[in-house]
Amino acid sequence: MKILWINPVGTDGFDGIIGTILKDSAAPGTEVDVVSLPEGRPMHLEYHAYESLVTSDITSIVYHLAPRYDGVIIGCFYDVGLREAREVSGKAVVTAPCQSSLAFAAQLGNSFSVLVGRKKWIPKMEENVRMYGYGDTLASMRPLELGVYDFQADVNKTAKIMMEQGKIAIEEDNAEVLILGCTIEFGFHEKMQDTLGVPVIDAVAAPFKMAEMLASSARLFHWYPSRKWGGEPPPEKELLDWNILKGDPPIGNLLKHKDI
């Protein structure tokens, strides 16, 4: 099967390392491509204004490229553009980090805490948790006071802060599972769960494995995205008449599976 990961930012700085993580954890027979947006787009999505600027890009990429893939992943824990992308994905499943991480956490424990980068992120992430139906099992949102580009800048400092906040979430908030609330919090979950003794859900691995599982289920059972009611796609006639989604998709970098 073929899976596409979208880094919805105007830099290819994370494409290589995320591609490697995905390729190394892929099931036999799964191929992974990674794309990012062109220059001139936001370099991170810590602000909702930035989200609004890339939602149309995500929608366009999914519309044009989804027919070539079994699954598409939007690589931002805000799950930016998820509903919009699902409308135009055809038979391809579309996943994103927050919803996927919550689904895994619900199978592994009775409560969870999310280790987020900054307090700024919490209102939107709490809103998503409630919208997805997991509000009653949310133990806490624990801010690390680290921005997107801080996580990998000093990994020892990041690991220390994450371990401290993870321990507080478990011992004081009664979290049974921890979720790392940013895709750039990669590389920490194994050491954390070995030390803290609870499952720690990685925000890159979760949507990838969810996409693999759903794509496999689609092949086996024909469980494709519903196109009834809320899942109804825009009419192709309107897209043509209104000159919408024409031209090439807004891709700045495309990293193919063979080049990862």
Give structural notes:
The model has no long low-confidence stretch (mean pLDDT 97). The protein has 260 residues and is of the alpha/beta class. It has helices spanning 15-25, 48-65, 82-87, 97-108, 122-131, 155-171, 189-196, 205-221, 236-241; strands spanning 2-7, 31-36, 71-74, 93-95, 112-116, 138-143, 177-180, 200-201, 253-255. The strands form two sheets. A five-stranded mixed beta sheet has the order 4-3-1-2-9. Strands 6-5-7-8 form a four-stranded parallel beta sheet, with helices on both faces. The protein is built from nine helices and nine strands.
Largest sheet: 5 strands, mixed
The gyration radius over C-alpha positions equals: 18 Å
Query: How many DSSP helices?
Result: 9
Strand arrangement, largest sheet?
4-3-1-2-9
Q: What would the CATH topology of the largest domain be? A: Rossmann fold
Protein structure class:
alpha/beta
Average pLDDT metric: 97
- N- to C-terminal distance: 17 Å
Note the overall shape. Answer: globular
| SSE order, one letter for each helix or strand | EHEHEHEHEHEHEHEHHE
Structure summary, number of beta strands: 9
> Strand percentage, roughly?
15-25%
CATH class annotation of the largest domain: Alpha Beta
CATH architecture of the largest domain: 3-Layer(aba) Sandwich
The count of domains is 2
- Helical fraction equals 40-55%
Low-confidence segments, given as residue ranges, are none
